[in-house]
Write a structure and sequence with these properties.
single chain, alpha/beta, Rossmann fold, 2 domains, 6-stranded mixed β-sheet, 4-stranded antiparallel β-sheet, 12 strands, 19% strand, elongated
């Protein structure tokens, strides 16, 4: 009897793709392709953003003489990825002392895989903004001209670095917005014969013009109040090197402070003409550097205008501490630690004009200890920072104690530079860039 059931038909289905698997495979391929489109979009956006950032930085520069549209077009034309339908919108706000440029660039990128889901193109968009503000700058440049600066070509390396710094910070200044007080210092600071008289100095000799400040003068940054100040004697303590140095613990009148200068030629000449002197009274230099930024010195500056020492356009400076507009900056360079103040016991001895006190054993005394001078220095550094003054310091081939003094005085660790040799130029360049840099705001 035959079975009622048929024998099943055997079929070999090895290697077959079901319709579901085909659908899933296509989906995977399309998804992977879409990811590639997105990667391409981001790559092109990054390229466009980079070109736009560089373009608006150039267009926002106050020294830029080409219009913003042309400047930006030049940067966008150099992009590595071309786009024929690129559209650019630019907004420029130019107020004379500041320039802000806002730009948006956009084009459509053809897709390879997104078009399979109905998106034949993706947008590539970049937005950037840059501003350069020509803020008024009041700057005190304080340079150590003590005898040790002759060693290892320190002065030779300093002079071109300081000149380049002056050129950099004054190059984009308009209408005298940047003023520089050049404060050279050795054991003392020479304010010049006219200012020596103005603040009440009593003259005993005509070789230099340094007043003997009292302790109270270092309590704040006011202009010395006009009490009758004795004059620092004309003497040299340690052995002189006449190839590099001129006589005196107090620098001579040719090496006096240059006040609120707007003329880089005057400053270049003064820096290139530096002659070294004796001692390292950094706190005396810091006193003058901060005093010339103190708004309470406006009356003093007006007197300097009247006597013709400074140009009329700086009358009304220094600006208030809290003006919010004016940048107040001190740049202080030294190669040595603060020394004590020494004075000959017989300051009118004519031998002091030609014979070093220490070498020829003239009797002398300590008029102020290193510890006390260091206290004055730190007090003035703190006053500067409390009043919003940015303090940059440079220790130039300096010993440990001097490095500590400079580091403690600086506004932050990033405002302190410890340099050797030609690195002095790099330090001044970095400071100049910080002062006058362009800033991306978006």
């Amino acid at each position: 009897m035959k079975s009622r059931f048929k024998k099943p038909c055997l079929v070999d289905d090895r290697g077959a793709l079901t319709p579901l698997m085909l659908v899933l495979l296509v989906g995977i391929l399309v998804s992977s392709g879409i990811a590639l489109d997105l990667i391409r979009q981001e790559s092109e956006r990054s390229d466009l953003q980079d070109a736009l950032d560089r373009g608006v930085l150039a267009a926002a520069s106050l020294t830029q003489t080409i219009d913003a549209q042309t400047t930006l077009a030049g940067y966008l034309a150099n992009r590595s990825i071309a786009a024929n339908d690129l559209s650019v919108a630019i907004e420029v706000d130019d107020s004379g002392n500041s320039r802000r440029v806002i730009a948006k660039a956009e084009y459509r990128m053809d897709t390879m895989f997104f078009r399979m889901v109905g998106l034949p193109q993706l947008p590539v968009i970049a937005v950037s903004s840059a501003v350069q503000r020509q803020q008024p700058v009041e700057l005190s440049l304080v340079l150590d001209i003590s005898g040790t600066m002759r060693w290892n070509n320190r002065l030779v390396n300093l002079q071109p670095a300081a000149v380049s710094f002056v050129d950099a910070v004054t190059s984009d200044s308009v209408d005298g917005l940047t003023t520089i007080n050049l404060v050279p210092y050795a054991g003392q600071v020479n304010p010049g014969p006219e200012v020596f008289r103005m603040i009440g100095g009593r003259r005993d000799h005509d070789f230099s013009s340094c007043p003997e400040f009292e302790d109270a003068d270092f309590d704040d940054s006011r202009v010395p109040n006009g009490r009758a100040y004795d004059q620092v004697p004309n003497f040299h303590h340690w052995r002189i090197d006449r190839d590099w140095m001129d006589w005196g613990w107090c620098p001579d009148d040719a090496t006096a402070i240059r006040y609120l200068s707007t003329d880089p030629d005057v400053l270049r000449s003064a820096i290139n003409g530096i002659r070294l002197h004796d001692g390292t009274g950094t706190y005396n230099a810091m006193k003058w550097a901060l005093t010339l930024l103190d708004p309470r010195s406006q009356g003093f500056v007006s007197e300097l205008v009247t006597t013709g020492i400074v140009p009329r356009e700086v009358d009304g400076r220094p600006a208030p501490w809290d003006s919010g507009e004016t940048l107040k900056i001190i740049v202080l360079m030294t190669d040595g630690q603060i020394t004590r103040q020494l004075r000959p016991k017989n300051p009118k001895d004519p031998k002091l004009r030609t014979q070093e006190v220490d070498v020829y054993k003239h009797p002398y005394e300590e008029s102020l200890s290193r510890r006390k001078g260091l206290g004055f220095f730190y007090n003035l550094c703190d006053l500067a920072k409390e009043n919003g003054v940015t303090v940059f310091t440079i220790a130039f081939e300096a010993p440990r104690a001097a490095r500590e003094e400079m580091q403690n005085c600086a506004s932050s660790a990033g405002h302190f530079f410890d340099v050797d040799g030609l690195e002095i130029g790099d330090a001044f360049s970095a400071i100049a860039s910080t002062i006058s840099k362009l800033k991306l705001v978006e």
